[in-house]
Design goal:
- There is one protein chain.
- The protein is mainly alpha-helical.
- It has one domain.
- The protein has 17 helices and no strands.
- Helix 1 runs antiparallel to helix 8, helix 2 packs parallel to helix 10 and helix 14 runs parallel beside helix 17.
- The longest helix has 38 residues.
- The two termini are 25 Å apart.
Length: 450
């Protein structure tokens, strides 16, 4: 591979290179989550449980609206990695400029839509009257930062496709500190509550976008960004959509099932909402760590596809699955054992702590299946299969969750029984995705021999 790029993912030693690539990626995600957690801790401890419920209950709705565009950023990263693997600088250049213009247009669109639709969507979710005004305020401010968030996600996906995961880490570390500092000032000093948390978030998002764009303009390879050359290349756009749109739709429809679950949680009242919001924050740490491995297997597989080195793809997948199991089991065990301690970070309310800890104790022993499901889907996208994983994921995860909510939950309408929908859907989807990958890999080897 061209030495101008940071990491050759098409040759051994793969395990060493997977660690080189994934560790900064894990740290980036964990840092970002730490800053998000700081938002929740600050608002929960200094603005009350209603403010905590307002901020915590908006996550599934934000993901629902943003995930399609985050999926497109994944598609951009896959295609840039594919072109790097095939050493096609012209297509790397075209894909980079198409992706960055697409990111700006997408960010503006979702920002405007989210700003004007926030209140109506929260009403549809059944947000309680005591939470609705604060949640609406938080979302309106949050969505004004979407152009920055989407541009950063596309830009960092392109940078990671070259093998560089350190620069996004540095950017997130610096802008995250700004986020935390503004949280403390705006919420504790100026008593701005949820609006202070939201303002701190969008300031850090725009800073991240500016920094990743500056970095792209200084790169010494075909990913270098030139503002005068920003235009949509039809061929590259269609490829990005082919890979990214099914992934984005899949994640958004996952969010639909999460929104429905959140709506059910909302019906139990603001204390339940706060407890679930506090407890589910720890899930995000496991997901982020193992999602970095999913992105790793996706990027490595994509470069090897571009280079025509299909024989490496199975090795990469086995390494990534093993790493994911270790992370998932260890972090899941910690979440189970220290459930009350973890939730206690976010609230001092005994009822909130009890609900959050109860949820953690149920979900954590099974969370490894969610991680494995994600890695299997990432591997499939890396080899160019995005539509089939979307269909099977929707059947396996969303279908199971919706069936559980509407057919099984009425038999025992409790919060804990509701949350059994997650581990069951994770296991079913992982089995389906793994089976699909086996057949896709078999097909690849047949085409190579032919």
């Amino acid at each position: 591979m061209d030495k101008r790029y940071s990491l050759d993912m098409t040759s051994a030693p793969f395990l060493k290179k997977i660690f080189i690539f994934s560790i900064p990626l894990i740290l980036t995600g964990l840092l970002q989550l730490a800053y998000n957690t700081a938002d929740v801790v600050v608002v929960g401890r200094f603005a009350g449980s209603e403010a905590l419920a307002a901020v915590g209950s908006t996550g599934s709705l934000i993901n629902l609206l943003l995930n399609v565009f985050i999926g497109l950023s994944m598609g951009s990263g896959v295609m840039v990695a594919r072109h790097i693997g095939s050493q096609d600088d012209e297509r790397v250049h075209n894909c980079t400029h198409t992706a960055m213009l697409l990111s700006l247009l997408s960010g503006i669109f979702i920002g405007i839509f989210g700003f004007f639709m926030s209140g109506k969507l929260l009403v549809l979710m059944g947000s309680p009257d005591d939470v609705l005004p604060l949640a609406t305020l938080y979302l309106k401010i949050y969505f004004t930062g979407c152009p920055g968030s989407v541009v950063y996600n596309f830009g960092s996906a392109i940078v990671r496709a070259t093998g560089d995961t350190k620069k996004p880490l540095i950017i997130l570390a610096s802008t995250g500190l700004v986020n935390v500092a503004l949280n403390l000032i705006l919420v504790i000093v100026f008593h701005m509550g949820v609006s202070g948390v939201a303002i701190a978030t969008i300031v850090s998002q725009y800073l991240s976008a500016i920094m990743i764009v500056i970095h792209l303009t200084k790169m010494n390879n075909a990913c270098r960004l030139h503002f005068s050359k920003l235009r949509i290349n039809k061929t590259e756009l269609l490829k990005i959509i082919q890979i990214g749109l099914p992934a984005g739709i899949q994640n958004s429809l996952f969010s639909v099932s999460n929104v429905i679950i959140q709506s059910t949680v909302n019906s139990f009242g603001s204390v339940a909402m706060a407890g679930i919001a506090a407890g589910s924050n720890y899930d995000s740490y496991i997901y982020t760590a193992t999602n970095a491995i999913a992105q790793t297997t996706m990027t490595f597989s994509s470069q090897n596809m571009g280079a025509g080195k299909y024989e490496n793809i199975g090795k990469i997948y086995r390494y990534c699955i093993t790493i994911t199991v270790i992370i998932g089991v260890v972090m899941g065990a910690l979440g189970t054992v220290f459930s009350e301690f973890i939730v206690g970070f976010f609230s001092t309310d005994k009822d909130v702590i009890a609900i959050g800890a109860q949820r953690l104790a149920l979900v954590m022993p099974f969370y490894v299946f969610c991680s494995l499901m994600d890695v299997a889907a990432g591997q499939l996208r890396g080899v160019g299969e995005s539509f089939k994983p979307m269909v099977f994921s929707l059947l396996g995860a969303c279908g199971v969750r919706l069936f559980w909510i509407y057919a099984i939950l009425p038999l025992n309408r409790t919060l804990i029984f509701l949350y059994w929908a997650y581990p069951i859907s994770w296991f079913v989807t992982f089995v389906i995705q793994s089976t699909l990958y086996f057949f896709v890999k078999k097909k690849l080897f047949k085409s190579q021999k032919a």
